[in-house]
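Troubleshooting: if your tokenizer reports a length mismatch, compare against these two reference records.
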Amino acid sequence: MANTSDIKNGLCINYNHDVYKVIEFLHVKPGKGPAFVRTKMKSLTNGKIIDNTFPAGHKIDVVRVERRKFQFLYKDDMGYHFMNNETYDQTMIDEKLLENPGLIKEGANVDILYDSTKDLPLSAELPQYVELEITYTEPGLKGDTATNAQKPATVETGAEIRVPLFINEGDTVKVDTRTGAYVERVKK
């Protein structure tokens, strides 16, 4: 058993008969009254995000997780299919357990978190940045980099992101998988 001083981003805990991953936390010490830890947690079984406040020193049940490298194979009606890079075993993950699933390309390597006691997949974590080719966007204007204006663009995976006005079809861009935001244009 751990307590609230052990809470950090990415920690997986048992809470209300479910496994949750801490997305954000804030330790608060008000001038009057006891300290507490405010958290935002995501359920690893159904994808729901909840806010919860723990009193300081509250005992929490930490779930031991393992990270395993997998390669994304394909998506179908059942979910997203991955292959273990070491054993070549395949596993399927539901779409709601992925963050920004529209940014994952076939053949991309991801980390899948497993509950080590039950050997169940909990969630898949994409790499922080991916490079994707723009398949459709309105024509850009050369030299239009002074403003911060953006336009919609469709990438090769079918996802729609917002890019600066100077980006054209065929350009490769770097995208942040946590937010789905454009980072930079990749030089070829």
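Reference record two:
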Amino acid sequence: MSDYLVQLFSDKDIIAKIKGKMPHLFQLAELENSRAGKLGMEIGSARERIIIALLMYRFGEENVEIGIPITGSEIDVLLFSNPISIKTATSKKPTSFKLIWTVDRRKALEFKKKYQPAVDMIYAQIFWGGIGYLYYFPKESQLRVFKKIGRKKYIRLPKQGTNPRGVEITKEALVLLAKDKQVLKIEINWERGVDNFKVYDRWVELWGVD
């Protein structure tokens, strides 16, 4: 387990900030990354940046490395050189999320054949109008579940003839992960609070700055 992520999920001040600010920040991200009421694919990257900013706030920007190729691997950020994967999904219960994004069937099959949990993971389960969680899934917890249920039950491939754009962890695996003895979580009341946000206002304002 990462001592630093244990600190993050145990710090009373940080927990209070997560509970109070994360729904607001995630709602702003959704408003900025939606069109005609539908979220764009870039919403995942926007949420990821919010969580990375939290790591920077808590541990200092100099200890958070973000220069990871977007298509390079499952690693999204390094915290004190420790690789971390960041996942987010909107659901009432832990159901599934994308392990990788790809529309290539061959790459999906290759990923399933070779995949094994290798890094710590932060997972935000968003449930607007209800209770969700921010989870810390240690690498050890992921490996324990992976070995318990096996590769076939841990990973779900996209159905042929569809375009779901990714390979997912299964509901069974995620439910077991959420219950693992080493997993830490922070309960969040996902209430929307922004009513009059205008996406273009700050850009219009910046155009007016000399």
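Descriptive notes for reference record two:
- The chain has a mean pLDDT of 87.
- The first strand starts at residue 34 and ends at 35.
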